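For reproducibility, we list the full input for the glyoxylic acid complex.
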Amino acid sequence: MRFLEKAPTIKADMSFLDLEDSVAPREKEAARKQVVSAIRDFSWDDRVLCVRINAWDTKWTYGDVIEVVGSAGTRLDEVMLPKVQHASDVKALDLLLTQVEINAGLPIGHIGIEAQIESTLGLINVEEICSASPRLETVVFGPADFAASMEMPVLTGGVEISEYPGDHFHYVFSKILMAGRANGLQVIDGPYLKIKDLDGLRKYCQRTVALGYDGKWALHPDQVTVVNEIYSPTQEQFDRANQILNAYKNATDVELKGAVMFGDEMIDEASRKMALKFVARGQRAGMAGS
Ligand code: GLV
Ligand code: MG
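The corresponding predicted structure, in tokenized form, follows.
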């Protein structure tokens, strides 16, 4: 509970309270009550609030949903389903959530779903998984379980493998990103387990920032600071994106042109779309024009 109390004070866009792998099997049922009290009693800001339930291959999934969603009230936004293997895992959760929402007096569809892709079968089926339910909001990569599922010769998931000539997860990152984006989902990278190695985290984040991921898990407040910094645009990128939007609006509305020069490069409708993403992310990070 000591750890849970800290959560609302940490400046993150989203917090999830875990019932899965960080909770010992004998504590699983008692943990549900603690999670419900944390949701109801702590003063959360406007962040997304989520609970990670146990996977369908355990005996706890339905109990987690009934007890936690049934008692948490409206402040709970989402549940995260780990180890998703098939689209039917998400569909089953969607059906169960509907019944629990009706019984708890919550609006149907109130609870969103985050799906963790962290097994070989999950990755093979990620395209169907990402379109399995309108409740889906986010797809998340789980590098530790994925490394175990692939039987990679590593003892720490989600860190660089220096012997590998390249990024051993590049295919995985790209495949999940494409499936998520094709279905309008947020796409998030999972944990970096070397908690004290902030330089390593900073460097590792660049892999998924460069591809277009929306963010990454943080396991410690120091990681939150690094992740917020790296996944937010720089002020320079934010300003340039705003300038592109202004220049392009002027081109289309005043000059009646679909493509114009912006400094020494040509901009068109695709440039506007790229710029919008920087502006939205920058605003979310609290940036204003300089
Ligand atoms: C997270 O759940 C992971 O397995 O990396
Ligand atoms: Mg996992």
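Residues 116, 118, 142-145, 157-158, 190-191 surround glyoxylic acid (ligand 1) (CB under 6 Å). Residues 235-284 form one domain. Both points were considered when choosing residues for closer inspection.
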